[in-house]
Structure formats: structure tokens, C-alpha cells
Specification:
Low-confidence stretches: 1-35, 37-50
Distance between the termini: 72 Å
Number of helices: 11
Radius of gyration: 24 Å
Helix content: 40-55%
Structural class: alpha+beta
Order of helices and strands: HHHHEHEEHEEHEEEHHHH
Mean pLDDT: 80
Largest sheet: 4 strands, antiparallel
Strand order of the largest sheet: 4-5-1-8
């Protein structure tokens, strides 16, 4: 079946306390899972469980990401069961497979909102940094840029008429040199350059900027690697998604077999992401348990100001941060702390 464009749904509500959340991920850990960075050192106010704005934001992102991954895993398991039944010759399973595929597609499209921007398209957990879209550009690869004569490339991102971003490429440059030069040239446009795990030249931009970069990136060369004279719109190729549901079909027997294989691979990637998020929640819970006592009145005033600022932001992400901070804080506890001695 062909999937029509579906509108994202609202993000699911995050669960509460970090310590309890750490053990709630149902997937078994897998080996070689990248560990999240250790939480930053901080202070907390006695009686206010973990009001630590950066950490609470990261806890909220991890809880949202866990809920999203749990939901996607459930959709994948349902789709797997339906495909297996269909391939076994159960005619009634066909309609349920199509319904499961549509539900999974809807959930997957909601990823940026449902995770607070903490999981990218490959399910890399990026908090506290926002998720980025990685992509490649035809002609911007190490072999092409390291061969041929010296050439000055001018890059443009955004509306026409902006100041071009120049970069010099020439024979003999190392991979690192090219990454640095391209990164420096593209930094004003919010685009980073990197060498990925396969040794390829990859560009990345925050997901919110991806449509603009995809639709406007243009290059003007000196006639060696790119045409000279005018800017030339280039073709960008986004990184493959961890759950490529948009390409899955069920019309024929071969389609269902191929989709089942895709589902199995996607389940492995989701389980790996679940283990990474679980580790992030455990690290955050440990940080809350071991954070030092408050710094007195000055720290309390600063914490109150930060709390008020976060509350004024509105939106689900801010509310999730606040809820995880005040969970378990009751009026009688506050009155006990404030009672004159």
C-alpha cells in the first residue's frame, strides 16, 4: 500500500520521577550501546527535589524519548505479528497489517515533538543538544575534493542574494583539513561538517533548519568540480531513518517479506535506543541522589528565578521539566521547612 501524508499527533505525556523511570524501560540492554555524557555538576535546594534546570530538562527529554520508543516498539511488534500471520496464509491478517502500518507511520512522524527534539532520525539520543539531520551532497565527498586542481567553492544557504560562503579545496588536503574548512565556511548557516563512522564526509544541521537547507543549498565553483559563473542547486541526500516506514509496502507477498525484514531491523535499532535512554535516566537519577546541598539564600533566589522563567515558557517540554522537579513536594513539607525555629 502507498502511505498518504499524515499529520503529527500531540506528544505523549512524560512520566514522573527520574529514579523510578530508570528501571521502567522494558527492553533488555544490548552490547556496545553508546553511553550518554555524564550530567553536569550542580546544586539543589533542600526540600525541592532536584530543581536543577538543565538536569530536569534532560530528564524530561529522556522520559519523553522513552515513552516514544516504547510506543514505536509496540507498533513494530504488532506489525511483525500481523505480517507473520499474513505470510502464514491467514487472510484476515491483511487488513490489520495495513492498519498497523498506518499507526506506526503516524507515530514515527511525531518523533520530533514526542521526544522534545532529543532523538534524531537514526534514534541517536542527543540531549541536551537538539537533534540534527545528517545529509550528504553529491560532489562534496573526500575523493572528489582531494583530487583535481585548486578551486574556490562558494556556498549559499537561504534566500538568494546573501553573502556567499567561500571555501578553498586543493590536492593534498587531509580529511580533517576538509572537515575544518567546510565547517568554518558553513557555520554561519548553521551547518556542521564531520567525518562519519564509515569515513564519509557528512553535513548536519538542526532538524528545524533542515527544510530550508535542503531546498536552498547551492554551490558555485571554478569549473573544476562544480560549474562556474552561477550558483547551482545541489542534491542533498538525508541519512536513512532508523524506522523507514514510508518505504514499507504490503501489496504483494514479496512486499510483505521485505517489510518483515525491515521491521526486524528497526526493532533492533529501537531496542538499542531504549538501552541508551535507560542509561541516561539512570545517570540522571544518580546525579539527583548525589547532588550537594544548597548554597543558601543566594542560590535559592537564583533557583526561584530559573523556576519562574521555565514556567513562563509554556509548552509541554517546560511543564515536563517542572513536574519532574516538584514531584513529591507537598505543602506540609514546605511549611515544615519554612516554620520559624
Amino acid at each position: 500500500m502507498q502511505l498518504s501524508s499524515l499529520q503529527p499527533t500531540a506528544a505523549g505525556a512524560g512520566r514522573a520521577a527520574a529514579a523510578g523511570a530508570a528501571g521502567a524501560v522494558r527492553a533488555a540492554p544490548v552490547s556496545s550501546v553508546p553511553q550518554p555524557a555524564a550530567p553536569r555538576a550542580a546544586q539543589r535546594l533542600d526540600g525541592l527535589r532536584g530543581w536543577w534546570p538543565d538536569l530536569n530538562r534532560e530528564v524530561a527529554h529522556a522520559q519523553q524519548s522513552r515513552d516514544f520508543l516504547d510506543g514505536v516498539a509496540g507498533h513494530l511488534q504488532t506489525l511483525k505479528a500481523g505480517l507473520s500471520a499474513s505470510l502464514a496464509g491467514r487472510a484476515a491478517a491483511g487488513a490489520r497489517v495495513d492498519e498497523s502500518l498506518v499507526a506506526l507511520d503516524r507515530a514515527w512522524r511525531d518523533r520530533p515533538a514526542a521526544t522534545g527534539g532529543a532523538l534524531d532520525a537514526r534514534l541517536r539520543y542527543t540531549s541536551p543538544e537538539p537533534a540534527a539531520q545528517r545529509f550528504t551532497v553529491r560532489g562534496l565527498d573526500f575523493p572528489s575534493l582531494q583530487s583535481g586542481d585548486r578551486e574556490v567553492l562558494a556556498l549559499s544557504v537561504g534566500v538568494p542574494g546573501q553573502r556567499p560562503l567561500p571555501v578553498v579545496v586543493e590536492p593534498g588536503l587531509s580529511d580533517r583539513d576538509l572537515v575544518l574548512r567546510l565547517g568554518q565556511a558553513l557555520a554561519p548557516a548553521g551547518v556542521r561538517a564531520m567525518r562519519d563512522g564509515q569515513g564519509d564526509l557528512v553535513l548536519a544541521t538542526p532538524e528545524a533548519q533542515w527544510p530550508a537547507v535542503r531546498d536552498t543549498l547551492a554551490i558555485k565553483g571554478g569549473g573544476q568540480r562544480f560549474p562556474t559563473g552561477q550558483f547551482h542547486r545541489v542534491r542533498t541526500e538525508p541519512e536513512a531513518e532508523a524506522v523507514p516506514v514510508a518505504g514499507w509496502k504490503t501489496a504483494s507477498l514479496d512486499d510483505r517479506k521485505a517489510t518483515l525484514q525491515g521491521v526486524l531491523g528497526a526493532l533492533d535499532r529501537v531496542r538499542e535506543a531504549q538501552a541508551t535512554v535507560s542509561a541516561a535516566l539512570a545517570a540522571s537519577a544518580a546525579a539527583l541522589d548525589t547532588s550537594p546541598p544548597s548554597g543558601g539564600a543566594d542560590w535559592a533566589a537564583a533557583a526561584a528565578a530559573a523556576f519562574e522563567s521555565a514556567a513562563a515558557e509554556g509548552g509541554f517540554a517546560a511543564r515536563a521539566t517542572l513536574v519532574s522537579a516538584v514531584d513529591g513536594l507537598h505543602r506540609d513539607r514546605v511549611q515544615a521547612v519554612m516554620r520559624p525555629r
